[in-house]
Fold:
Amino acid sequence: MTVMVLGRYHFYTNQNLFRVHEDVATADRQRDVAEVVDCLAAYQPTHVAVELVATDQEAVDAHYRQFLDGHWDLPPNERYQVGFWGGSGHEATAGACDRFQE
Structure:
């Protein structure tokens, strides 16, 4: 079994050790998120886990189904911006991660 663990700062909160003040909804940050998601898609994950409080599971599952159906816009949170896209079967853009290869 192969496992990848991806750590990110929290996009839209003050719960980081250092406060990060940037708007991930801007075109530049969305390109950055898309690049990360492309690289994750190239890895071809079979499962994606996201950090959440267990009591939120039902709501997160409902939001994920709505997202897959195209009926829910992703809020500026890494759980959704990276986790939902990464788990959605997103196809990697050809050569998207070439610059990260050794």
